[in-house]
Specification:
With about 300 residues, the chain is of the alpha/beta class. The protein has helices at about 45-50, 75-80, 95-105, 110-125, 140-150, 170-185, 195-200, 220-225, 270-280, 290-310, and strands spanning about 5-15, 20-30, 35, 60-65, 65-70, 80-85, 155-160, 190-195, 205-210, 215-220, 230-235, 250-255, 260-265, 285-290. It folds into two domains: about 5-225, P-loop containing nucleotide triphosphate hydrolases (Rossmann fold, 3-Layer(aba) Sandwich); about 225-310, 2-Layer Sandwich (Alpha-Beta Plaits). The longest helix has 19 residues, at about 290-310. The protein is elongated and about 80 Å long. Bound molecules: adenosine-5'-diphosphate (ADP).
Length: about 300
């Protein structure tokens, strides 16, 4: 499988020594729908700024579809369509002109640029707004125009920074549908988000970033089930049975003196103790092992609740 993106020990230290990105290694396969999930300030925008060559890296390597951003900067940039968080249109330029000009930045001849711009207007359902200036467009239309502009040079990788932050549920769903269609049509998509639900509904793979570091990565479904479980560590009396099988629990680690079991969050431990007893396993002590992923998800959920309470 071809790699759409490869980051090796990517690092960004801002003036004053603040490390926003602390040596990230990351691979995204071609065709993937990938979420970089993390709370505000985690380093998501910095990471995509580095990938898109908008921010200068402190060290590390970036390859976009095999093009190194240091040695093949233009080729790497051509593979990327970037949708920034904030609208940054020229407010006096009609939609069609915005797209034609954008194609011009990539050296696409005006005739072809017009064809591509028309194609993007069709794709994003903006044909009847071709002569409209951004300030006369609704929020949802502006968002579609941002995506159209990012797609006008037919990039293989579309990167979106918080595509649905602060938008209403209707626009969010419409954006999700649109992104799904683009992905099905072959565009690799990477988006940043601080909405767990967005990563869960949309993406196949996810990397979780916190304090400038990737704390977990994998398939969205695997990570969610892992985060929704608690791990308990049992210290056992030395003569534990050789092979232990527990019906409803996942054993992460087992030795003569130690057992680590995953228990779905909120599930009673009584049945687990009963099973251990049938095996004659004597528990000396037990503790809850919080992992970084759990801590992270709990923080995200707490933030979500705080936001909902203030809404
Ligand atoms: P996110 O996109 O996940 O919200 P950012 O990548 O924007 O996070 O920021 C990561 C950290 O880097 C934050 O603590 C932010 O304050 C800091 N930061 C971002 N830009 C700059 C800058 N130009 N100078 C100094 N610090 C910055």
């Amino acid at each position: 499988m071809q790699k759409a993106l490869e980051l090796k020990q990517l690092r960004k230290t801002y003036e004053g020594g603040f490390e926003a990105v602390k040596g990230i290694d990351l691979t995204v396969e071609a065709g993937d729908f990938f979420a970089l999930l993390g709370p505000n300030g985690a380093g998501k925008s910095t990471t995509i700024g580095l990938i898109s060559s908008l921010i200068t890296k402190t060290s590390g390597e970036i390859e976009v579809f095999g093009h190194n951003t240091d040695t093949e900067t233009e080729a790497a940039k051509r593979c990327i369509g970037l949708v920034p968080q904030e609208f940054n249109f020229n407010s006096f330029e009609p939609a069609l002109e915005i797209l034609i000009h954008q194609a011009g930045f990539y050296g696409i001849h005006r005739h072809e640029a017009r064809e591509r711009a028309e194609h993007c207007l069709d794709m994003l359902d903006l044909q009847d707004k071709r002569k409209t200036v951004p300030m006369k467009l609704s929020g949802g239309m502006k968002r579609r125009l941002m995506i159209a502009r990012a797609m006008v040079h037919a990039p293989r990788l579309l990167i979106l920074d918080e595509p649905t932050a602060g938008v209403d549920i209707e626009i969010r769903r419409a954006t999700w549908d649109l992104l799904q269609k683009l992905n099905e049509a072959g565009t690799t998509i990477i988006l940043t988000t601080h909405y767990l639900e967005e990563a869960e509904s949309l993406c196949r793979n996810v990397a979780i970033i916190d304090h400038g570091e990737i704390v977990e990565r994998g398939q969205v479904s695997d990570l969610l089930s892992k985060a929704m479980a608690e791990t308990f560590v049992f210290d056992l009396q030395q003569h534990a049975v050789k092979k232990l099988q527990l019906s409803a629990y996942k054993i992460n680690q087992y030795s003569e003196s130690r057992l680590e079991v995953e228990v779905p969050r909120g599930q009673s431990l009584n049945a687990l103790f009963a099973e251990l007893q049938t095996f004659g396993v004597e528990v000396l002590s037990m503790r809850n092992k919080t992992n970084r992923l759990e801590e992270f998800f709990l923080r995200l959920v707490a933030r979500g609740k705080q936001r909902a309470a203030h809404a």
